From TrEMBL:
It comes from Terasakiella brassicae. Pfam families: FA_hydroxylase (PF04116). Residues 85-222 form the Fatty acid hydroxylase domain. This is Fatty acid hydroxylase domain-containing protein. The chain crosses the membrane at residues 12-29, 50-72, 78-98, 139-163.
Amino acid sequence: MQFILENEGVIRLSVFAGVFCLMAVLETVRPRRKRSFARQKRWFSNFANLAIGAVCARLILPWVPVSVAFYAQQNPVLFEPVLPVVVGILLLDFCIYLQHVAMHKIPVLWRLHRLHHADLDYDVTTGIRFHPIEIILSLLFKMAIILIFAIDPLSVILFEVILNAMAMFNHANFKLPLKLDAVLRLFIVTPDFHRVHHSSIQAETNSNYGFNISLWDRLCRTYTAQPQDGHETMQIGLEYFRDPAQLRLGKMIIQPFCKKEP
């Protein structure tokens, strides 16, 4: 535990790099779908957007979630710091599920979140494609949950590592054996499970909100088993953002301020 607490940054960066490289290789050797665009056309913009979001978050927010967790242990707001690690992780996961639903249901939040859905391909970099403002709002929401429930630092670090790894895993364009997918999706969000959420069909977009475990979608009745057009032929993205120019970094940054709507 002490090692994890003392080496949070190194652990998170190492897991991110390792999972990203593994997913990139799997996408190459066992792709689920044919690419619509060359990798370099999208990857530069998606990574640059992530870098801008990370820098903005660091400049604007004086804290990070784990520092809030340390503070909450000494200065509980509503609840005493008694949650077991597993419970803390599950609580954070459910709250992130609820946040994701809110990003779809509240118009002003959807204008930010739709950047994630406007990607015209679906691969590991889609999992890091979030508008900088959404990144900051997500951090604020997460820190509020940590503060209110006094979630301990170890739970926070483990959750952040799992969330980052799973975001890349379930956005990756690689094919799991169908029987394995059927078993895994009983517990976690697989690429086929989450790809439905990136369908251009609105009813499918508004389903399968989970990032880590699949339980929340089943309990809250937001689960769609398969896309109606099939994984290989379904249209990824949004009907009203089909111009490839929208894949450029500048277009991505200003997209929430555009008036284009369904």
